TrEMBL record:
Residue span of region Disordered: 740-763
Positions of the Glycosyl hydrolase family domain: 264-740
Xref: Gene3D superfamilies: 2.70.98.10, alpha-1,2-mannosidase (1.20.1050.60), alpha-1,2-mannosidases domains (1.20.1610.10), GH92 mannosidase domain (3.30.2080.10)
Full protein name: GH92 family glycosyl hydrolase
Pfam families: Glyco_hydro_92, Glyco_hydro_92N
Catalytic class of the enzyme: hydrolase
A GO molecular-function descriptor: hydrolase activity, acting on glycosyl bonds
Domain Glycosyl hydrolase family 92 N-terminal: 31-258
Range of residues in the leader sequence: 1-19
Cofactor field: Ca(2+)
Enzyme Commission number, as recorded: 3.2.1.-
Biased segments, Polar residues type: 741-763
Keyword entries, A-Z: Calcium, Glycosidase, Hydrolase, Signal
Length: 763
C-alpha cells in the first residue's frame, strides 16, 4: 500500500470512528478526561483546570505538579517536567491554593529542592482518571501511581534496581513542620501555606505511612539539608527518606490529612484507607465516581460527545469541597476557616457563587437535594461563625467578585422543597446582607446604601462594577422576595424586596436599549461605550450584562420596545464584530481574547454573565434560535481535549451549562420552578433522581443536522410550553422531543408558552 493510500484509509477510518455512536455505557468514569481544560495559561484560558485525582466533593484532591510551588497554574499540559505530586485544595488559579504539600520520588542522589528533583515526563506515559493517576518519571526511572479517598490517598512508586532510591516530602514554604519517625515508618507534618481566608492558627496536618523501612532519613529547609535532626519547623520544611530497591519494587505510601490535628489525620487514614491495598482504594474511588456519574446515562451520541459530557459532569461534581471530618465518635466536625475553632456540623468551601449560582447549584437541587441540604447547613454555620454568608470562600472569606448571590442558592433550595437545615438563620443572614456592606467588598453588598435609597449603585461614587452590582442585587432581591413569601414573613418585608427586584429598570437606557451606568444625580454616565469591559460591569461589557434580568425577561423585553425588538437585540450579539475596549483594565484580559477567538460576535461564553442569554429566545416566541445556538456552542466551544473549554471552567459552572444543555433545558432563573427548554444533545438520556425515579429524555432522530425541536410530549401528553417544571421532572417519566433539520416556527410562539417573568405574573 503506498503512503498516500494508507493515509487516506487511516483518515477515513478516523472519521468513521469519530462518527460511531455510543449505545451502551456501563463504566461512565472511563469516559472522563481529567486533562480537559489543562492546556491553559494566564493570558488564555482553555478551562484553567488541573487533573483533580479525587472523589466527588472530596476534602482533598491530588495532582501532578509541573510548575513551581505557589504558581496557580500548578499543572499545565504544555509542561514537560513534574516537580511533585501535590495535595491541593485549589478552586482556581486566580484564587490559588492552601494547605498543600507534595511527595516526589528521586533516584541516584538526594535531590530535594523543587527544581533539582523535577523529572521529564510525557503524556504518552501518563494515565489520568478521576480515581487513578499514573505517570512515568524519566529522570528517576520511577512510575508513580495515586488512588484517592475523600481525605486520604495511596501512592505506589515502582522503582528501578538501585541503592539510592528516595522519596521527598515537601511541606511548602511560609511556615511548615516535618517530623520523621523511622520506627513507625512514618512522617508527619503540617503546612500553613495559604493564599488568604484563614485564621492565624490555620494548619493542614498530614501523616504518611510507608510500607518499607527507611535506610536513610533527613529533614531539609529550602535548599539546606538538615542532617542532624529528624524534626524541623522552618520556612520551608521537608523530609527525604531513602532505601535500596530491586528492579520493579513497589513502595507504598498511605497519606491522609486533617485541618484539625495530627491525631485526626491518623483517624482519617485509618477510617478511609486502613488495611486496604492500593487496588482496593482505587476500586472504591472508581465505584464512588460511577455511582454519581451513572445517575445520568446518555445514549446515541458520538464518542467525543460522551467524553465531553462525562468530563463536564466530573467537573460539576468536584466543588464545593467538603471541609468537614468525622471525629473519634463518628460525629461530623469541622475546623472553622472563619474563627479557627473546631465545631460540630457541616462545612463546605472553595466556591464563588457569582459563577455557580447560575447552573451548578440548580443542578444540585435537581440531582442532589440531600447534599444541597448539607451545603445549606454549612452556609448557616458560616454565618454563625463569621457573621456573613460566604460569597467566595477558599477556605474562608475571599475578596473576589461581586453580588450577594448566596440569596439565590438559599431561596432556590428552600423553594424546591429541600429541608433539614436552619432556614431561619439563613434568612436572617440574607436580611443582614440586604442592608450592610461587609468587611470585604465581596461580602454583604458593596454600595448598598445607594442601592437601597436610589434603587441603583451610582457610577460616580467610587464603587466599581456598579451596574453589574445593581443588576445582581435586583435578582437577589427577587429570590429573597420569593423566599419571604414562602416563609410567611411580614407583608412590609415582602413588598420591600418585591419592589427592589425591579431596580434593574433604573439602569436601562432607552436610547441604546442597553444597561448603562448612572450617576448619583440620575444622569447616565457619559461617554458610554457598550463594548467597554469592566468599569460599570464585571468581566464583561453592557452587551453581556444587559441580559442579567433572570427573573423578569418580559419586563426587559418591554423596555426594549417589545418582543420583536428584544429578539433583534439578542440576534445582534451574534452578528456584531468581537470589538472591545479594554481601557478599564489597561490590557487585554484573557476573557476578552477568549470572546474574540470563539468567533461568535459579542457572545462571550467563556465567562459567566452571558451564558443564559441563548435561552432567552424562548421568552420572545423564537425558541428555534435557542435550539440552534445551544447546539452551536456545544459543538464549537466544547470538546474533551486539553483545550476543551472556551474560557475558565470556574468550579463547575461552564461544565454545568453543558450538562444541563445536553439534557435539553437550563435553569435561567434559580428561585423559580422552571427550566427553560433548549434541545437535547443525545437521542436518549436517562436521569436517575435521588428519590429513585427515572426521568427519560428521548429525542429520536437527533443528529448533527437535526438540531431543531419539532414537538415535545411529557408522559405522552403534548408539552406546548417552552419550559418544564422542577416538580414534573422529580415525578419521573418520559419527555419525548421530536427533532428535525428545519425549525418549527409554530411551536412555542404563543404567550402561554413563555417561561416565568415577574412582569407577566406580578408575583
Amino acid at each position: 500500500m503506498n503512503t498516500f493510500r494508507w493515509c487516506l484509509v487511516a483518515l477515513c477510518a478516523g472519521f468513521h470512528a469519530n462518527a460511531q455512536t455510543v449505545t451502551k455505557i456501563t463504566d461512565p468514569v472511563e469516559w472522563v478526561n481529567p486533562l480537559m481544560g489543562t492546556d491553559s495559561k494566564g493570558s488564555l484560558s482553555n478551562g484553567n483546570t488541573y487533573p483533580a485525582i479525587a472523589t466527588p466533593w472530596g476534602m482533598n484532591f491530588w495532582m501532578p505538579q509541573t510548575n513551581q510551588n505557589g504558581n496557580g497554574w500548578a499543572y499545565q499540559y504544555s509542561a514537560d517536567k513534574i516537580r511533585g505530586f501535590k495535595q491541593t485544595h485549589q478552586p482556581s488559579p486566580w484564587i490559588n491554593d492552601y494547605g498543600q504539600f507534595s511527595l516526589m520520588p528521586v533516584t541516584g542522589r538526594m535531590k530535594f529542592s523543587q527544581d533539582e528533583r523535577a523529572s521529564w515526563f510525557s503524556h504518552k506515559a501518563e494515565t489520568a482518571k478521576p480515581y487513578y493517576y499514573s505517570v512515568y518519571l524519566a529522570d528517576a526511572d520511577v512510575t508513580t501511581e495515586i488512588a484517592p479517598t475523600e481525605r486520604a490517598a495511596q501512592f505506589r512508586f515502582t522503582f528501578p534496581k538501585t541503592d539510592s532510591a528516595f522519596i521527598v516530602v515537601d511541606a511548602f514554604d511560609r511556615g511548615s513542620y516535618i517530623r520523621i519517625i523511622p520506627s513507625e515508618r512514618k512522617i508527619i507534618g503540617y503546612s500553613t501555606r495559604n493564599s488568604g481566608g484563614v485564621p492565624e492558627n490555620f494548619k493542614n496536618y498530614f501523616v504518611l505511612v510507608f510500607d518499607k523501612p527507611f535506610a536513610l532519613a533527613h529533614t531539609w529547609d529550602g535548599n539546606r539539608l538538615a542532617k542532624d535532626t529528624l524534626e524541623l519547623k522552618a520556612g520551608n520544611a521537608g523530609a527525604i527518606i531513602g532505601f535500596a530497591t530491586s528492579k520493579g519494587e513497589k513502595v507504598l505510601v498511605k497519606a491522609a490529612s486533617s485541618f484539625i490535628s495530627h491525631e485526626q489525620a491518623a483517624l482519617n487514614l485509618q477510617r478511609e484507607v486502613g488495611a486496604d491495598s492500593f487496588e482496593a482504594t482505587k476500586q472504591k474511588a472508581k465505584q464512588a465516581w460511577n455511582k454519581e456519574l451513572g445517575r445520568i446515562v446518555p445514549e446515541g451520541g458520538t464518542s467525543d460527545q460522551v467524553r465531553t459530557f462525562y468530563s463536564c459532569l466530573y467537573r460539576t461534581l468536584l466543588f464545593p469541597r467538603k471541609f468537614y471530618e468525622f471525629d473519634a465518635k463518628n460525629q461530623i466536625v469541622h475546623y472553622s476557616p472563619y474563627n479557627g475553632q473546631v465545631l460540630p456540623g457541616y462545612m463546605f468551601t472553595d466556591n464563588g457563587f457569582w459563577d455557580t449560582f447560575r447552573a451548578v447549584f440548580p443542578f444540585f437541587t435537581l440531582m442532589y437535594p440531600e447534599l444541597n441540604g448539607q451545603i445549606m447547613e454549612g452556609l448557616a454555620n458560616t454565618y454563625k461563625e463569621s457573621g456573613w454568608l460566604p460569597e467566595w470562600a477558599s477556605p474562608g472569606h475571599r475578596d473576589c467578585m461581586i453580588g450577594s448571590n448566596s440569596a439565590s442558592l438559599i431561596a432556590d433550595s428552600y423553594l424546591k422543597g429541600i429541608r433539614g437545615y436552619d432556614i431561619e438563620t439563613l434568612y436572617q443572614a440574607l436580611l443582614k446582607n440586604s442592608e450592610n456592606e461587609g468587611p470585604l467588598s465581596s461580602v454583604g453588598r458593596k454600595g448598598v446604601k445607594y442601592y437601597n435609597s436610589l434603587g441603583y449603585v451610582p457610577y460616580d461614587v467610587d464603587v466599581n462594577e456598579n451596574a453589574a452590582r445593581t443588576l445582581e442585587y435586583a435578582y437577589d432581591d427577587f429570590t429573597i422576595y420569593k423566599l419571604a413569601v414562602a416563609l410567611k414573613r411580614p407583608q412590609e418585608e415582602i413588598e420591600r424586596f418585591k419592589k427592589r427586584s425591579q431596580n434593574y429598570r433604573n439602569l436601562f437606557d432607552p436610547e441604546t436599549k442597553l444597561m448603562r451606568g448612572k450617576n448619583q444625580d440620575g444622569k447616565f454616565q457619559a461617554p458610554f461605550n457598550p463594548f467597554k469591559w469592566g468599569d460599570a460591569f464585571t468581566e464583561g461589557n453592557s452587551w453581556h450584562y444587559t441580559w442579567s434580568v433572570f427573573h423578569d425577561v418580559e419586563g426587559l423585553a418591554r423596555l426594549m420596545g417589545g418582543r420583536p425588538q428584544f429578539a433583534q437585540m439578542l440576534d445582534s450579539v451574534f452578528v456584531m464584530a468581537p470589538v472591545y475596549d479594554e481601557s478599564y483594565y489597561g490590557s487585554v484580559i484573557h476573557e476578552i481574547r477568549e470572546m474574540q477567538i470563539a468567533n461568535m460576535g459579542q457572545y462571550a461564553h467563556g465567562n459567566q454573565p452571558i451564558q443564559h442569554m441563548i435561552y432567552l429566545y424562548n421568552y420572545a416566541g423564537q425558541p428555534w434560535k435557542t435550539q440552534y445556538w445551544v447546539r452551536q456552542v456545544m459543538d464549537r466551544l466544547y470538546h474533551s481535549g486539553a483545550d476543551g473549554y472556551c474560557g475558565d471552567e470556574d468550579n463547575g459552572q461552564t461544565s454545568a451549562w453543558y450538562v444541563f444543555s445536553a439534557m435539553g433545558f437550563y435553569p435561567v432563573c434559580p428561585g423559580t420552578d422552571q427550566y427553560v427548554l433548549g434541545a437535547p444533545l443525545f437521542p436518549k438520556m436517562t436521569v436517575t433522581l435521588q428519590n429513585g425515579k427515572k426521568f427519560v429524555i428521548e429525542a429520536p432522530g437527533n443528529s448533527k443536522t437535526n438540531v431543531y425541536t419539532q414537538n415535545v410530549t411529557l408522559n405522552g401528553k403534548p408539552l406546548n410550553a417552552n419550559w418544564i417544571s422542577h416538580s414534573a421532572i422529580q415525578q419521573g417519566g418520559v419527555m419525548k422531543v421530536s427533532m428535525g433539520a428545519s425549525p418549527n416556527k409554530q411551536r412555542g410562539t404563543n404567550e402561554s408558552a413563555y417561561p416565568y417573568s415577574f412582569t407577566t405574573t406580578g408575583k
